[in-house]
Amino acid sequence: MKQNTLYLVIGALVVVVIALGIYVYREQTRPKGVELKIDDNGISIQEN
């Protein structure tokens, strides 16, 4: 039982590290400038 818990904790940590890496990569590769979004709520302009 203790070994299964250890595997579960290690697996959860691996998932968190991968998710954080993907988030950081997407934030760094996002183009800089102005973002224009048109949807059901109308038009929104956001500066990156």
UniProtKB/TrEMBL annotation:
Parts of the chain that traverse the membrane: 6-25
Superkingdom assignment: Bacteria
UniProt-recorded name of the protein: RsiW-degrading membrane proteinase PrsW (M82 family)
UniProt keywords, alphabetically: Membrane, Transmembrane, Transmembrane helix
